[in-house]
Amino acid sequence: MYRFILKELCTKKNKYAPIDKLKEALEKNDMQGACEIVQNVFEELPYDVYNHKKERHIEAFYHGVIHILFHYLGLYIQSEVHTSRGRADAVVFTNTHIFIFEFKIGKSTAAAMQQLVERKYAAKFRESGKEVALIAVNFDKEEQEMEDWEVANYK
Fold first, then answer.
1. Contact (Cβ atoms closer than 8 angstroms) between residue 17 and residue 5
2. What is the pTM of this model?
């Protein structure tokens, strides 16, 4: 259902539609704006779609929604990107940037960022010629929302 809704939103050329605003924010590297738009997407979902019992299912739900969002933005996204030290939850590619995501449930963005840095997920993109950003996301399973989002540039 979400695929069809997002497809409908993407086929209409409305520069005020949330999907268009999200793409514009990413293209401008406005990560605060992008975070707010993604938070709004989760806030608009009805509470009964969050009816998951196991934490890994909750993370998979959020991960899936984010994957669909970026896919229907027309951006190239890969999920579960393997490296020599583990796997990043998602990697989004634009013409100028690579955004590497790590998702956590009920933990902290600090824990997610620590994993991104310690496992050196960005190292494989070092020679890409693009700016690389690490994005740590924490979801609150009780409040059923994206709690926080932290961005760090990879150097």
1. no
2. 0.71
**pLDDT score of 131 more than 80:** yes
pLDDT at position 98, please? 94
| Strand duo 97-105 + 145-153: pairing | unpaired
Distance of CA 121 to the CA centre of its chain: 15
The residue type found at 3 is R
Q: Which residues pair with 140 in a beta bridge?
A: 145
With contact defined as beta carbons under 8 Å apart, do 94 and 26 qualify? Answer: yes
CA distances from 19 to 16, 41, 71, 113 (A): 8, 9, 11, 26
pLDDT per residue over 78-95, tens digit each? Answer: 888 988 899 999 999 988
- Which distant-in-sequence residues (6+ apart) come within 8 Å of 57 by Cβ? none
Q: Are 118 and 110 in contact (CB under 8 A)?
A: no
Cβ atoms of 117 and 151 within 8 Å: the answer is no
The Cα–Cα gap between 82 and 60 comes to 17
pLDDT digits (tens, 9 = 90+) for 13-58: 554 466 778 888 888 889 888 888 888 777 766 555 556 566 667 7
What DSSP character marks residue 21?
A: H
Tokens 């399973």 belong to residue: 141
